[in-house]
């Protein structure tokens, strides 16, 4: 499913089944694929089936990239169809584990918020913010939902602004301010018969929806293929015809960054980078009944890797490690010419 596909036009059950078949075919990508399949099951109202997919991952014995995320999603889903006690136990376990990834924190805090556990939601958001952002000068993009969610819950609780709320204001990029977006009195305006009040609320909702769409816009990026140095050397040695595509490793890295900047400048969203390996490329070529020497296969390979959840979003935060694998911060490596975002 493409990110621009209207939700009402998606057959969630068939999409979930397709992703599950793909996970069977590519077990190394099962985590990303089955999480997407579970999301479709939830959207289709098949919540027990979604839980079965989360359990499949958790009991697979595989070394999951983010087991806390899987557990958080399972807890949120369980609570939605009546398994509150089990959901709370999982949420308590995640809070005790204190993962360094923001995503599980966001999911469990929002689950608590959705079920009117505002004090617990506030505590959870605050725990995460203190853990992940204490001493951080510029909050990474992935932590923004924590700050915004905490601000929202505090407004509902009637709490006074604090330093973390001020930080939430600083990362908010939409024209309607957070205090207005998160005003508990907005719910009353939805029942108003005053056309001006209703129009104002529609504008607020559109701004809020835009924030959610931006946050959710990255699952299926337009991906550019990156070969690590050793893989590129092996590739061009095994398939000399591809040397024309990759005259040198340095040129390959420069081409990737230039292409992504050009796409970004043209307004293309959902940009990402996928890393190729020679064995998986050869397997892909075999599945397409095509020689690996065929350069036209390369963009198809990149698209397939992205569809299997293998893409990393571009650009990274300036303080994050550069996508090229140098170990240097992106802002001091390939992002050195990128204007501040």
Automatic annotation (TrEMBL):
Give coiled-coil spans as residue ranges: none
Q: What superkingdom does the record give?
A: Bacteria
> Per the UniProt entry, what species is this protein from, by scientific name?
Streptomyces erythrogriseus
InterPro entries, from UniProt?
SEC_C_motif, TPR-like_helical_dom_sf
- One protein family per Pfam: SEC-C
Q: State the protein's name.
A: SEC-C domain-containing protein
């Amino acid at each position: 499913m493409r990110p621009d596909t209207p939700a009402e036009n998606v057959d969630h059950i068939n999409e979930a089944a397709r992703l599950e078949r793909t996970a069977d075919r590519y077990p190394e990508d099962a985590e990303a694929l089955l999480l997407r399949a579970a999301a479709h099951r939830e959207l289709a109202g098949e919540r027990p089936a979604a839980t079965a997919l989360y359990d499949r991952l958790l009991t697979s014995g595989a070394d999951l990239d983010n087991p806390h995320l899987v557990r958080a999603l399972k807890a949120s889903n369980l609570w939605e169809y009546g398994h509150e006690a089990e959901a709370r136990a999982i949420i308590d376990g995640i809070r005790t584990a204190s993962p360094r990834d923001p995503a599980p924190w966001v999911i469990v805090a929002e689950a608590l918020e959705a079920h009117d556990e505002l004090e617990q939601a506030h505590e959870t958001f605050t725990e995460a913010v203190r853990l992940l952002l204490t001493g951080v000068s510029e909050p990474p993009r992935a932590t923004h939902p924590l700050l915004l969610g905490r601000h929202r819950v505090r407004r509902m609780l009637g709490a006074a602004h604090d330093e973390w709320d001020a930080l939430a204001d600083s990362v908010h990029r939409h024209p309607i301010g957070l205090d207005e977006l998160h005003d508990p009195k907005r719910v009353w305006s939805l029942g108003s018969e005053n056309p001006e009040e209703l129009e104002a609320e529609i504008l607020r909702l559109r701004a809020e929806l835009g924030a959610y769409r931006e946050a959710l816009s990255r699952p299926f990026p337009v991906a550019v293929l990156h070969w690590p140095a050793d893989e590129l050397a092996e590739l061009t040695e095994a398939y000399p015809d591809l040397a024309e595509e990759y005259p040198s490793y340095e040129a390959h890295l420069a081409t990737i960054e230039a292409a992504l900047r050009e796409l970004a400048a043209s307004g293309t969203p959902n940009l990402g980078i996928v890393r190729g390996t020679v064995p998986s490329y050869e397997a892909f070529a075999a599945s397409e009944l095509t020689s690996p020497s065929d350069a036209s296969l390369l963009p198809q390979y990149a698209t397939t890797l992205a569809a299997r959840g293998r893409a990393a979003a571009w650009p990274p935060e300036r303080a994050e490690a550069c996508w090229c694998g140098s170990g240097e911060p992106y802002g001091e490596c390939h992002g050195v010419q990128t204007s501040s975002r």
